[in-house]
Design goal:
This protein has helices at 5-21, 24-33, 38-46, 65-78, 80-100, 103-114, 233-237, 240-270, 282-310, 316-340, 352-360, 369-379, and strands at 120-123, 139-143, 146-153, 164-170, 181-186, 193-197, 209-218, 272-273, 276-277. It is α+β, with helices and mostly antiparallel strands and 384 residues long. The strands form 3 sheets. The chain has a 4-stranded antiparallel β-sheet with strand order 2-3-7-6, with no helix packed on it.
């Protein structure tokens, strides 16, 4: 596939950055310790890639979603400890403030995001709420010129390193669940916010958290888009930024699949069994040929969906298709490549076992594969 020259140059830049600041040994250590590498992230910010979702007038490089996905892919090949905080800056923060922030929020936040100084953590899911986000139980009320927030969020990745928690909140009667929601930007350091670790399989380097809110007081400027967006949260959530969320996870999936194929491809040519490289055995050759074919199809689907979103064309079905196909594809490809490497694919001496751990959760997070199938059928108006 032929990419534009500037994206090719961007990939080269990211590969140089990774070689200098994220060697394999460091990535393995970050994964083992579930450690956020602040210094490596600061070096990443210096490259300017945080600004790829932000218009130039706010200090960014201009909104370039294909370039953003290329960065995510290259980072995911090496470490989720870099890919995840990049997403927290460029996508969770940048995309949402660009698309739904007030002018004052844009002027204040976007330059900081572009410099890598401000990240958002998503506070969407709750202990009792997963895919049905409009049923959130976290609630807030207005008391004069202040907002009082109570409730709990689950799977709030990076809440401890974020500047704000992007909190979907019920702000009216639950009967009109889509009309009585607001998005609040909650500082994790605010009084009444409690953050506790929540360990899980894969995607390590930025800790996932439980977050509780106990009479947290906020000003009206905490409402994404400003006070007139009170009870407009669902409309803000179900927009372009949500389409990008499906793409960013797809880009992570592609990066993992590409990394797994590259490692297995090299290993198969170096590992000698029965007097010849295992790449000479038909079963290995077929497995690697299938993996290569799958990753190319994944790349083409992601590119197609990303360009639709970039051009603001209808894309709801295509982004769901990309999320479904790429995340399922990453789980399939990484496990296929793991089998090529045999016992070494299970060992922490190699990166393959990490690729598998990171990939197998992708069909679940960010909208499960079954949800994507329902969305595709609904968007394409399949009769019920």
């Amino acid at each position: 596939m032929t990419e534009s020259e500037h994206i090719g140059m961007l990939r080269d830049s990211m590969r140089r950055y990774i070689a200098a600041h994220a060697p394999r040994e460091a990535a393995r250590d970050w994964d083992k310790r579930n450690h956020f590498p602040k210094d490596a992230f600061k070096e990443l910010a210096k490259t300017g890639v945080m600004g790829l979702t932000i218009p130039e007038e706010y200090g960014g490089a201009g909104v370039d979603l294909p370039a953003t996905m290329a960065v995510i892919e290259e980072l995911a090949k090496r470490s989720s400890a870099l890919a995840c905080p990049y997403i927290m800056a460029a996508c969770y923060a940048g995309m949402n403030v660009v698309e739904a922030g007030s002018e004052s929020q844009k002027r204040d936040m976007l330059p900081k995001i572009a410099r890598g100084e401000l990240l958002f953590a998503y506070g969407l899911s709750e202990p009792n709420v997963g895919g049905d986000l409009a049923s959130v139980e976290t609630h807030a009320r207005m008391e004069g010129n202040r907002i009082v927030l109570n409730g709990a969020k689950r799977w709030c990745t990076g809440a401890d390193i974020a500047g704000y928690i992007f909190c979907l909140t019920r702000t009216g009667p639950k009967e009109d669940k889509y009309k009585n929601l607001s998005i609040l930007l909650v500082p994790p350091t605010a009084k009444g916010v409690t953050i506790t670790p929540l360990d899980h399989l894969g995607i390590r380097g930025v800790e996932t958290k439980d977050v509780s809110f106990d009479d947290v007081e906020l000003g009206p400027d905490a409402i994404l888009g400003g006070p007139d967006k009170w009870n407009q949260g669902w409309r803000q959530l179900a927009g372009r930024a949500l389409e990008v969320e499906k793409l960013e996870l797809s880009a992570v999936a592609l990066g993992l699949a590409e990394a797994a194929v590259a490692d297995a491809w090299q290993y198969a040519q170096e590992r000698i069994q029965f007097g010849k490289p295992i790449s000479a055995h038909q079963s290995i050759r077929h497995a690697l040929a299938e993996a290569k074919t799958k990753t190319l199809a994944m790349r083409l689907m992601l590119d197609h969906a990303t360009r639709l979103v970039q051009d603001r064309k209808p894309s709801a079905a295509e982004t769901c298709m990309a999320k479904l196909y790429l995340c399922e594809g990453a789980a399939e490809v990484t496990q296929k490549c793991q089998r090529v490497m045999g016992a070494y694919g299970l060992s922490n001496l190699m990166d393959m076992e990490r690729y598998v751990r990171d990939a197998i959760g992708l069909p679940i997070v960010g909208g499960s594969s079954n949800m994507q199938k329902n969305n595709i059928a609904n968007r394409l108006k399949l009769a019920e």
